[in-house]
Fold NAD(P)H-dependent oxidoreductase subunit E.
Amino acid sequence: MSAQQDVKHHEEPASFAFDAESEAQIEKILKRYPAGKEASAVIPLLYVVQKQMGRATGSAWVPRVAMDVVATRLHMAPIRVYEVATFYFMFNTKPIGRFHLQVCGTTPCWLRGSDEVLRACKDAGALKGYGDTSEDGIFTLSEVECLGGCVNAPVLAVDDDYYEDLDYESTVKLIEALKRGERPTPGSARGRLCSAPEGGPEVLLDIPLKAPADAAGRKGE
Ligand code: FES
C-alpha cells in the first residue's frame, strides 16, 4: 500500500490515549484555568492531540475517538468538542500528508503572487490542487484565509511555520528541500528581517533589532 493510500485509507483508530509528552503539556495548560472552567482548554487540548498524531503517525489530525478523550478530560459533552474541532480549519479532522502546505489566497497574498505559489506547490509537490494529497503521502495542499502575515505576502504556511515573500522559484526550492528531509528556516525568502525593508531597517536604528524565535524556538536570521 502506498503512503498516499495509507493517508487516504487511514481509518479512525479504535482508541486514543495521550502519551507522556502530551500529558506534560496538558498539565501546564490546565493550570491556566480555574477549577470548573476546564472546558476553556478545549482548543489547546485539540492542538495537543493533533501534534501527538503527527509524532505518532506522521499525519497530524484529530480523530473522533481523540475528541471523545478530550471531552472526558475536560468534563464536556462530546458534541461540544466536535463543534469546536470542525469549526476551526486549523484542526484536520481527516488524515493529511506529512507536510501541510497552506497557501494564503486572501487579497494581499493574491495581489502579491499567491497564484504562483500555488502553481509551484502543484508542480514541485505533485499535487492536483487544493484538498489533494501527493501520491507519496508527503504533502497535503490547502487554501487558507489570511494568516496575518500580509506585510510579507505572499505567505505559505508549512504546518506551523510561515514562509514569506515567496515566488514560484523560492517555493519550488522550499518544497524540494522538504522532500530531502530538510527544514529551511521560516521567514522571508528575500532575506528581510521580520517585516523590515529589504536591505535592513531604515527607522528606529538606535534600537537593537533581533528576529524573534519561531514557534519551535529557532531563531530567525
Ligand atoms: S492575506 Fe495572506 S497573510 Fe494576510
